[in-house]
């Protein structure tokens, strides 16, 4: 081999090695310090009586999932039930406050497995409908077998929600 080709191969290998090292450092930093949780554009105000003179604004309809019939509402949902995974059988009562799901100890539902991000997903009430939002997790959040990406998706009672190796659903 000519010395020029050998030099170019060495430089190419060195560049490739540095990309690998920087990827590992970035991954460790994101895992140790977490990712910044984005706020929804039209976040629901904290629970409390709304003034009678100001009507509540209509929540924008998510466009990522065409299914809206049978959506779970505050009057029909009272608990979150884990159906499979390390915490199978656990039932959590739901209020009106958002619940973060992930490995972080700050999460409302802590799931400790290798396939769950620190701040994986958020379950929240928008208007009268429960929705799930993926928080840019590595392995994704799945609602009834479809990946939730971009806009939050409305949840129907009995829909399987999969986060990492854990599956749960909303029940009355």
Instruction: State the helix count.
Output: 1
Main sheet specs = 6 strands, antiparallel
Proportion of residues in β-strands? 25-35%
Low-confidence stretches: 44-69
Q: Report the order of strands and helices.
A: HEEEEEEEEEEE
Helix fraction bin: 10-25%
Going by helix content, strand content and strand pairing, the class is alpha+beta
Mean pLDDT: 77
The count of strands amounts to 11
Distance between the termini: 72 Å
Radius of gyration from CA coordinates: 21 Å
Per the principal axes of the C-alpha atoms, what is the gross shape? elongated
Can you list the strand order of the major beta sheet? Answer: 2-1-11-10-7-8
Kindly list the characteristics that best describe this protein.
single chain, 172 residues, alpha+beta, 6-stranded antiparallel sheet, 5-stranded mixed sheet, 1 helix, 18% helix, 26% strand
Tell me what the structure shows.
This protein is α+β, with helices and mostly antiparallel strands and 172 residues long. The protein has one helix and eleven strands. It is elongated, with a radius of gyration of 21 Å.
């Amino acid at each position: 081999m000519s010395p020029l080709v050998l030099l170019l191969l060495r430089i190419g290998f060195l560049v490739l090695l540095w990309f690998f090292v920087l990827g590992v450092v970035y991954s460790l930093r994101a895992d140790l310090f977490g990712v910044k949780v984005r706020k929804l554009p039209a976040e629901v105000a904290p629970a409390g009586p709304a003034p009678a003179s100001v009507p509540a604004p209509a929540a924008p309809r998510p466009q990522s999932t065409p299914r809206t019939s049978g959506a779970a509402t505050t009057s029909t949902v009272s608990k979150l039930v884990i159906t499979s995974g390390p915490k199978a059988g656990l039932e959590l009562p739901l209020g009106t406050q958002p619940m973060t799901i992930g490995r972080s100890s700050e999460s409302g539902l802590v799931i400790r497995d290798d396939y769950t991000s620190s701040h994986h997903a958020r379950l929240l009430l928008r208007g009268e409908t429960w929705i799930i939002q993926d928080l840019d997790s590595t392995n994704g959040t799945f609602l009834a077998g479809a990946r939730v990406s971009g806009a939050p998706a409305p949840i129907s009672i009995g829909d399987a929600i999969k986060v990492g190796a854990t599956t749960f659903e909303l029940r009355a």
